[in-house]
Design brief:
The structure is a single chain. The chain is an alpha+beta fold and 1903 residues long. Helix content is 49%, strand content 7%. It is built from 79 helices and 32 strands. The longest helix is centred in the middle third of the chain and has 38 residues.
């Protein structure tokens, strides 16, 4: 078949065939059917030619890019507008032809039926959400699409969700990459067996049509490509071509999705070489094809690639026409010169960046294998397609198409080989690309699919030299940015390093290639090949050496560096990614004994590379001063392979170690880094800027430490264990520049170090030795022990969250190493060493995460300061760990004082490293320890407790690790070498401890005290020097005075080095360098040195005992414990771990010394018997002085603090009460605002700005700091208890019909339809949505002070998140957010007390008084006419209140701007604040007392302001509802005239609104009697409403029964107080109208199924009236300052009623309480009820339905709640993150959902912007009147919008370890944290977002 197709295609005719004209017009389907039939015949030559001709015409490449002939711009434009249509046409033809005349969709379905869907293979691009399950993955790169993941079973697995960065493909069904247990249901069945065979004719047409189609595509790509001109990048042009090709590529992509059958056809087409050769070679007469071939050759050439001569290649090619052996193609070692093109290019590019004097180095190009770099020969469509894909810089569509084909196994292999063949070309393109980031992602998107598969990687490695190609390409890539190394010998250095300033390194351009390399090295079979191939290893070491010594730092000695380069980021990243990670990859395959050979290979070539490096930089024995590089990858390779060899492969260490000379060289640079770390921390590099600190921190940071500092320390440990210990120790002190300090004289000169750095450098040197000697990471610890030690160190510094712990524990960077984060060992170790502290929630709202804290026994036995010091990035962490340790010891009572870092016994050393302990038993170290002990005892300067601690630690280590016998092996060694004999006889610490040293000769400056005295007098002299022993006159003469004081250490070390070199090389004389004196001290500038002899007469033991006396501050404080108890020596109980301070440390050491030798024991006893010499006169040591100073300073500070606190105490207290939402008893309410004491005549206020106190007056009013905010919280109340759930499926929807706001809206609009507008606006309250809530922090200020405060804020440039122009500020005292000031009314609440005495006036009199008072216009103590400051302020605050909410929430009247609107708005403000306070109290008043809400409330002041303004609008006396409530009128006046709309019947009025209107219309302050009177009158109305509503709810039978019962009792004495009588009367009155007539179906809804019993009726009536009673009681509490009683819920009604004075006081509650007993009718009940019912009757005659609806008021609202969220976050995420927005119908980039109403919005989406408001801001205004609470779906975080500001609130979803996962970075499963959600809801309800959340910023309407 394929051959036939090829033949057909090959028979290309030069001229267009003569098809009849009608043929063109023929129906496409018919043509297709005809051709298919023709081709199905056995002899199909004619059909093939006909099809050929048709395709030639349809797919002509000339038409779409016709203009390309002109070349330049036109090509890109695609030749004007024509081609679009032509291409559509071409695609239509192709679809028809493929389907062979049938319908294309049916064809697709037919092909799909034959899909053996064993693999998923879904390809995705960046930002797609996918899953990775480590439990199921074989390759670390394994990933699954969401669908396969959820259909598989991964319960209990270690998985996470992630956002793809580069794109990827689903591996479900691929058993090479993941375990079969993880496959999803669809891909579990290996279905290929039972799929029927594909019928031959189904895909026949495809095999003919597709080759032409793909060739056409390739021609387009050839035509469209123009080499980027030198002056301008041509991405634009390329993108245009790609846009034109979009439909074609999409068509191919759709074909791949048809399943396996179609994919295999495509594979045939793409890989068939004959087809390719025939179509594309450019032979034949077709001009177009020729031209296209030329373009292709030009493109090849310009890419620096040679195209092998045709004849030659075809010659080779013949034998292998069908197969695709790339070995022949790609590596036909064709002659071709190295593409000089791009190298010269690059020089030009960077010429502009002129890198100063650092010239770029070019290596000779001979090193490269040219066939790899420069030869490309394409032999199939697939190969050329990939070529163009690279040329066009990996367009996403092409990448997706190429990847979609991968499930086809044959294609996979062919494509992988092609990819490898183009590898060098990919690298070149990547280097030149301007969009290298995008391109890198696309490359990795492809390569990760190919190289993660071990079988495939192995095959390509064997057949295509994959490893050679990769290493060569990497080498070539780095060679373009080499510069000469300046390390060591600047002039003559031959070493080259990469330049970290180059774009290649700065932008990480190399990472795709490196990550591929790491990926293939993770396969054992590939890594083995690499480790066996010596040539490759040499090349690789060559590559690694480019990084050796890069980014060299030179210490600035004079002035601060001008420009801080940040190249160190690039350097560390490069070493980690390009050197360390491949190293870890290789190491992971060297785990067993059989792999010894590999290690030997690596070590061998590594040492060779190191030797070359030392030669190249001209290194002899001294490192150049003031230089450091942190990058020594060769050293680290060597170290890590050594470690592996000993640990896992049982190799003999000495067999892989070099000679002594090499070891000496090896140790220099790592040691230099350790010394430089100490210098950097001592601020000696401060002139190099902050970046040098950054490097020091990165070097030890958790992601780098095990590839950097750990190998360095290990290498030094290896060197120390093999080199002469005296040499090593002296090198250390010389490197740390503290040799001159180690003298016994009291003064010395340090030629290389400033005095202020000496102490910290000495501490650094000793700390380094301690780490070197006690660290066992590579010296014998098992992996689990290491993990445990790391974890303990991190937890001791601070409590950690689970994720930060995962991040901080240096995991083995190679994913296959076994210690995966979250793996079994990690969790088990964590649970062994730490306790989980669940997150707690403070009322202040600070969100905590779940933390792990060390268990007590960890502090007790495992805290290891050495490990902590090694792992701390910030020095303060060491202190933090010590503080926590101290706190633990105090708490557990183990040690009361100030403990020293504990001494911890180490795990035993691996036998190979035993030599390390010789460091502790060498004379040099003993001299240093002796000298330091002496200096500390004599109080010389520059020594700290830290130094002493380290000295004792080293002595103790020495005793722990001493040789068994006390013989002195080295005594026999004679000759001048033994320079220290005069100090110590042998080298064993145990015996040297007791050796007494009598005299020491020191060199001291002439000014030193030792010189002036007689030498014999210097016994206890307070002085010291540099210990030159009496044996060394030669040295003194030989060296000049500048170095003479250095005590023999250095000379000794140099001599040893020289000897070793002489031994190893005969040309020693050339190597020896002339000894130069230190460059940096000019000889002779130092004062003259002179020799003095000190009498010492001490041994280490005697010094220790004296030290004990000194530390304890008592003479003779040490008493050997064994004198009392001999047991101690026989069975010593020395714990592995010891707490304590210096004194206990000394005692421990002396005990150990005595245990190890009887001599020591005797000598200790002797010393203790002698009378201790007097301690030097200066009693106070520096350390003690420091602590004394500290104490004194602390004392002073404390006193100062006391004073300040006293001043602030009163204010502080009031601030704390109000700001921190803490419940406190009533009496603590600040500033007597709400509580009043009768004896005070006038309220006094403190101004928090000027500090004066006084009353508020009209001229200088005082005001409360208040925050006004619009709120829709009330409107969110619903009538059912269950909160609504957030919808998580399409079926679930939330409808806002049942919210309080909606119900009130409906009611108002219903009233406005039938009744007079002005009266409607008095019958209800508004403010359920957008009501204004006023809250205060309780602080007051003068209003004029406030104005000047605002001025100062306005001028202050630093504004913190609030807008002064909008009147916002923070309270000057408590910093709470506020935006207005509420004036306090002059006089005080105290006046009320005069009015509170109960009077005996009758209710009728009171009613009259109320009416008169209401009629008096503006009867207000402050007359409005005279404009006072107070009245102005009241007006301005009223304006503020109005402006707080939007116009739509204020204007409900039909006539805009009518005064009724304002009137309604004002009393509704009071209503809103009362209702909200009720909600804050939990919806009832059972708790009584003052609540937190009560403290924030300022209703009293608010009432005054509202009342003042309400009085401006006097209600016409005829309309005053008060009349209707208290007077009977004649019936005819009730009928009114018919024309105009009637007033709202009084029974439809909202009683609470009436109450507020009545009270605000009264002159203030109000009489208590009047208040009670109004309440009583209104209660009668309320009760009647309740009865009417009840009557509507009853069924007809119930009604007639009740009517009957009541009628019988009507004549009883208190009939007016019996609900049965009243109910029956209401029923009879209302039944006169048509109210009950329209009984019917809809009635059933209202009827409750059970009949009404008297109890249920009583309950209904009480529930109906309760809300009114609650609001009224609150109002009474605020106006008259009366306490609210607390009670049980059952008795709330009766308690409130009696509190309000509705219940007669003598009322006894023996028989069951009846609500009707509270009634007190002002006029005969039945008359007034008749009058009220009459109004309704006349209305219901016309509108019975509405009349009924208005009677039933829903008064029992439940508390508002946010939506209920699902348990698992994934349910929200999966539904919403792909959901389309209902406004713009796109899937939002940042979807969010409102937690109040469930609306789905686009955060920041420009698509849904309206009038410059983005959707979230808009929604926050509509849904919450300016407050919005949104859950950001992609981040799991909640954001709060409040007005013009927003803040990130945090997350209410936490993972299993109690942590947030912002932005879902970790992708672990998240679960709802109910406590957090409650806190959020609480803040929403209590309106405290502004106070509790601190980080606000403006959103500029852009959210």
């Amino acid at each position: 078949m394929a051959a036939a197709a090829a033949a057909a295609v090959g028979g290309q005719q030069p001229s267009q065939p003569e098809l009849p004209a009608s043929g063109l017009a023929l129906d496409k389907a018919a043509t297709a059917a005809h051709l298919k039939a023709a081709l199905s015949r056995p002899d199909n030559r004619a059909g093939a030619e006909e099809l050929q001709a048709l395709l030639e015409r349809v797919l002509s490449a000339e038409r779409p890019l016709a203009a390309a002939a002109g070349g330049e711009e036109a090509a890109a434009a695609g030749g004007g507008g024509g081609p679009g249509a032509a291409e559509e046409e071409a695609l239509e033809w192709c679809k028809c032809l493929l389907a062979g005349g049938g319908g294309y969709d049916e064809f697709c379905a037919a092909v799909r039926a034959y899909d053996p869907a064993a693999l998923c293979g879904l390809v995705w691009t960046a930002n797609f959400v996918a899953y990775r399950c480590r439990t199921c993955g074989i390759s670390p790169c394994m990933s699954l699409c969401a669908e396969c993941f959820h259909q598989g079973d991964h319960t209990g697995h270690d998985f996470n969700m992630f956002r793809s960065q580069a794109g990827g493909a689903c591996d479900c069904g691929d058993s090479n990459v993941m375990r079969e247990s993880g496959f999803c249901k669809r891909h579990q069945i290996k279905s290929s067996s039972n799929i029927p065979c594909v019928p031959k004719d189904l895909l026949m047409m495809s095999e003919f049509v597709l080759p032409r189609f793909i060739f056409c595509l390739i021609q387009y790509l050839r035509e469209g490509y123009n080499e980027p001109a030198a002056d301008m990048p041509s991405e634009k042009d390329l993108n245009k071509v790609l846009q034109l090709l979009e439909p074609q590529i999409s068509f191919l992509e759709d074909l791949t999705k048809m399943g396996g059958a179609m994919r295999s056809v495509l594979t045939q087409v793409l890989t068939n070489q004959q087809n390719y050769k025939d179509l594309t070679s450019g032979h034949g007469e077709n001009a177009c094809a020729k031209k296209s071939h030329e373009k292709y050759l030009i493109a090849l050439k310009s890419s620096g690639l040679t195209y092998p001569e045709d004849k030659l290649v075809y010659g080779i090619q013949e034998p292998s026409a069908g197969t695709s052996t790339l070995a022949v193609q790609g590596f036909a070692g064709a002659a071709g010169t190295l593409g000089q093109v791009d190298s010269s290019d690059e020089d030009d590019q960077d010429g502009s960046q002129g890198l100063g004097k650092r010239k770029r180095v070019k290596l000779s190009s001979g090193t490269k294998d040219q066939s790899i770099m420069d030869v490309l020969k394409h032999k199939s469509f697939l190969e050329e397609l990939l070529f163009w894909t690279i040329k066009y810089e990996f367009p996403q569509k092409m990448v997706t198409f190429l990847l979609n084909m991968l499930p086809d196994q044959e294609y996979k292999v062919a494509f992988t080989k092609t990819f490898v063949q183009h590898y060098a070309f990919i690298m070149k393109t990547l280097k030149k690309s301007h969009e290298s980031d995008t391109m890198s992602n696309r490359i990795v998107h492809i390569s990760v699919q190919l190289f993660s598969n071990e079988e495939l990687a192995r095959q390509v490695t064997e057949e295509c030299q994959l490893l050679d190609i990769m290493v060569t390409v990497l080498l070539y890539m780095m060679e373009s940015c080499l510069i000469k190394s300046e390390l060591q010998d600047e002039e003559n250095s031959l070493h080259v390093v990469v330049n970290c300033g180059e774009a290649l390194l700065k932008n990480n351009t190399y990472w795709p290639l490196v990550s591929d390399f790491i990926n293939i090295l993770s396969h054992q079979s590939v890594a083995k090949r690499f480790l066996e191939d010596h040539g490759l290893l040499v090349t690789w070491m060559n590559f690694v050496s480019f990084f050796q010594g890069m980014n060299l730092n030179k210490r600035e000695l004079n002035e601060h560096v001008e420009f801080e380069s940040q190249t160190y980021y690039a350097a560390f990243a490069a070493e980690l990614e390009a050197c360390a990670q491949p190293m870890w990859g290789l190491l992971s395959h060297c785990k067993v004994r059989e792999t010894q050979e590999y290690t030997r290979n690596v070590v061998r070539y590594c040492l060779e590379a190191l030797q070359d490096w030392f030669d190249a930089i001209n290194f002899v024995d001294e490192p150049a001063p003031n230089q450091v590089t942190f990058h020594l990858p060769l050293h680290r390779y060597y170290a890590m392979f050594l470690s592996k060899a000993v640990k896992c492969q049982e190799l003999d260490l000495d067999s892989v170690l070099p000679d002594q000379e090499m070891l000496m060289k090896l140790m220099i640079h790592p040691l230099q880094i350790q010394a430089s770390l100490a210098e950097i921390h001592s601020n000696m590099w401060v002139r190099n800027g902050l970046q040098i600190k950054g490097q020091a921190m990165t070097y030890v940071q958790s992601h780098f430490c095990n590839s950097m500092i750990d190998p360095d320390i290990y290498l030094l440990q290896v060197c120390a264990s093999r080199l002469d210990p005296d040499y090593f120790i002296s090198s250390v002190f010389e490197r740390f520049k503290v040799v001159d300090l180690l003298t016994m004289a009291s003064q010395h000169q340090n030629t290389v170090l400033d005095a202020e750095h000496e102490r910290s450098m000495l501490e650094g040197a000793l700390t380094f030795l301690v780490i070197l000697l006690s660290l066992r990471l590579h010296l014998g610890m098992s992996d689990d022990e290491i993990l445990r030690a790391e974890m303990v160190a991190q937890l001791c510094m601070n409590d950690r969250t689970h994720s930060s712990l995962l991040d901080l524990i240096p995991e083995n960077p190679n994913p296959k190493s076994g210690i995966i984060p979250g793996s079994y060992s990690f969790e088990s170790v964590l649970s062994a060493v730490a306790d989980f502290k669940a997150p707690v929630f403070e009322p202040g709202g600070s969100m905590q995460q779940g933390m792990y804290t060390p268990k007590a026994e960890v502090w007790d036995q495992e805290f290891d300061p050495v490990m902590v010091i090694l792992r701390t990035v910030y020095r303060r962490d060491v202190q933090s760990a010590m503080d926590r340790y101290t706190a633990f010891l105090k708490q557990s009572g183990k040690f009361p004082g100030n403990p020293w870092p504990p001494y911890k016994k180490r795990t035993s050393l691996h036998p190979s490293y035993k030599g390390l302990m010789r460091l502790l038993h060498c004379k040099t170290l003993h001299i240093v320890l002796f000298t330091l002990l002496y200096k500390i005892l004599m109080d010389h300067q520059n020594l700290s407790e830290h130094v002493l601690c380290m000295v004792l630690y080293l002595i103790e280590l020495g005793l722990e690790n001493s040789a068994e016998e006390e013989s002195d092996e080295e005594a026999s060694v004679s000759g001048p070498e033994r320079c220290h004999d005069s100090w110590f006889p042998g080298s064993n610490l145990v015996s040297n401890m007791r050796h007494f040293i009598n005299y020491v000769r020191v060199r001291v400056p002439e000014t030193a005290p030792e010189v002036k005295r007689d030498s014999s007098a210097s016994t206890s002299s307070d002085s010291l020097g540099s210990s030159q022993t009496s044996r060394r006159p030669k040295v003194l003469q030989r060296e000049n005075s500048g170095t003479a004081q250095v005590f023999s250490l250095v000379a000794e070390r140099r001599k040893k080095f020289q000897e070793i070199i002489n031994r190893s090389s005969s040309e020693a004389n050339q190597v020896v360098r002339p000894k130069t004196s230190h460059k940096w001290s000019a000889p002779g500038s130092a004062p003259q040195l002179t020799t003095a002899i000190l009498e010492i007469k001490e041994s280490i033991l005697s010094l220790l005992i004296k030290l004990h006396h000194k530390l304890s501050g008592k003479q003779n404080s040490y008493y050997p414990p064994w004198l009392d108890d001999m047991e101690i020596l026989i069975q010593p109980e020395i714990p592995k771990y010891s707490h304590g301070d210096g004194i206990t440390a000394v005692e421990r050491i002396l005990l150990k010394a005595a245990l190890q030798s009887r001599m020591n024991k005797r000598i200790i006893e002797e010393i203790c018997r002698k009378v201790t010499p007097p301690v030097p006169p200066k009693k106070i040591t520096a350390a003690e002085k420091k602590t004394l100073d500290k104490e004194e300073r602390r004392q002073k500070a404390r006193e100062r603090q006391q004073k300040l606190l006293a001043e602030f105490a009163s204010r502080q207290k009031s601030f704390m009460e109000t700001a921190m939402d803490v419940d406190s008893p009533e009496n603590d309410i600040p500033m007597e605002i709400t509580t009043a004491e009768p004896q005070v005549s006038e309220a006094v206020y403190d101004c928090v700005i000027c500090g004066q106190s006084g009353p508020s007056s009209e001229d200088r009013p005082t005001g409360l700091v208040v925050l006004l905010q619009a709120s829709s919280v009330l409107g969110q109340c619903r009538d059912n208890v269950e909160p609504k759930k957030l919808p998580i499926t399409e079926e679930e929807q939330i409808y806002p019909w049942d919210t309080c706001a909606a119900v009130h809206d409906v009611r108002l609009s219903l009233l406005q339809r039938y009744f007079k507008d002005s009266s409607c606006l008095l019958a209800v309250s508004i403010g359920w949505e957008g009501g204004v809530y006023v809250q205060t922090c309780g602080h007051t200020l003068h209003i004029d002070c406030h104005k000047s405060y605002m001025e100062s804020l306005r001028n202050d440039q630093v504004l913190q998140g609030f807008s002064v122009d909008k009147g916002e500020f923070t309270c000057p005292l408590c910093r709470q957010f506020a935006n207005s000031v509420l004036p306090c009314y002059p006089g005080s609440n105290v006046e009320n007390n005069l009015w509170q005495r109960p009077s005996n006036r009758s209710i009728q009199d009171l009613i009259k008084e109320v009416e008169e008072l209401q009629g008096r216009p503006g009867a207000f103590p402050v007359s409005i006419s005279s404009e006072t400051n107070l009245s102005k302020e009241m007006e301005s605050v009223m304006k503020d209140i109005k402006n707080t909410t939007q116009k739509k929430y204020r204007d409900y009247s039909k006539t805009p701007g009518s005064p009724d609107n304002d009137f309604l708005f004002m009393y509704s403000v009071a209503r809103t604040n009362l209702e909200l306070e009720l909600i804050h109290r939990g919806g009832n008043l059972c708790s009584g007392g003052a609540s937190t809400a009560g403290k924030r409330s300022c209703l009293n002041q608010l009432f005054h302001v509202l009342a003042l303004h309400m009085r401006l609008y006097s209600i016409d006396s005829e309309y005053n509802p008060w009349r209707k409530l208290t007077q009977l009128e004649e019936m005819n006046s009730l009928l009114g005239n018919e024309e105009q709309q009637p007033e709202v019947p009084i029974l439809y009025h909202d009683v609470t609104s009436l109450l507020l209107i009545q009270i605000l219309m009264m002159p203030q302050p109000l009489h208590k009697d009047h208040f009670t009177c109004i309440v009583k009158v209104l209660f009668t109305l309320l009760y009647t409403q309740a009865l009417a509503a009840l009557s509507v709810k009853c069924s007809e039978e119930d009604r007639s029964a009740w009517k009957h019962v009541g009628a019988l009792k009507k004549n009883m004495c208190d009939a007016e107080k019996s609900y049965e009588v009243l109910l029956s009367f209401v029923i009879s009155e209302l039944s006169k109208g048509k109210l009950y007539h329209e009984e019917g179906t809809q009635e059933c809804a209202m009827v409750s199924p059970t009949a009404w019993s008297p109890e249920s009726m009583e309950k209904y009536l009480q529930d109906f009236c309760l809300p009114f009673l609650r609001i009224t009681s609150l109002l009474q509490h605020h106006l008259f300052g009366e306490d609210l009683p607390s009670c049980q819920e059952e008795e709330e009604f009766s308690v409130l009623a009696s509190c309000l004075g509705l219940l007669p006081t003598f009322y006894q509650t023996e028989h069951p309480f009846i609500s009707a007993s509270c009634l007190d009718w002002p006029v005969p009940a039945f008359d007034i009820i008749t009058q009220w019912c009459f109004e309704i009757k006349s209305f219901t005659e016309r509108h019975a339905e509405q009349g009924k609806a208005l009677l039933i008021q829903e008064s029992r609202w439940k508390l508002p709640h946010l939506l209920q969220l699902p348990e698992n976050y994934n349910t929200i995420f999966q539904y919403y993150h792909r959901k389309t927005c209902s406004v713009c119908t796109k899937v939002p980039k940042d979807p969010a959902v409102c937690l109040v109403c469930g609306t789905f919005v686009c955060l920041k989406g420009l698509c849904c912007k309206q009038q410059s408001y983005c959707e979230c801001v808009l929604h926050s205004q509509n849904c919450g009147a300016g407050t919005g609470i949104f859950l950001l779906i992609n981040a799991s975080v909640i954001i709060i919008i409040r007005g013009h500001r927003f803040c990130l609130w945090g997350s209410v979803y936490l993972d299993a370890h109690g942590e947030e996962d912002r932005d879902l970075r970790r992708g672990k499963p998240l679960y709802i944290c109910k406590e957090r959600y409650k806190v959020l809801e609480q803040q929403w309800i209590s309106h405290t977002f502004d106070h509790i959340n601190k980080r606000w910023g403006p959103h500029y309407n852009g959210l």
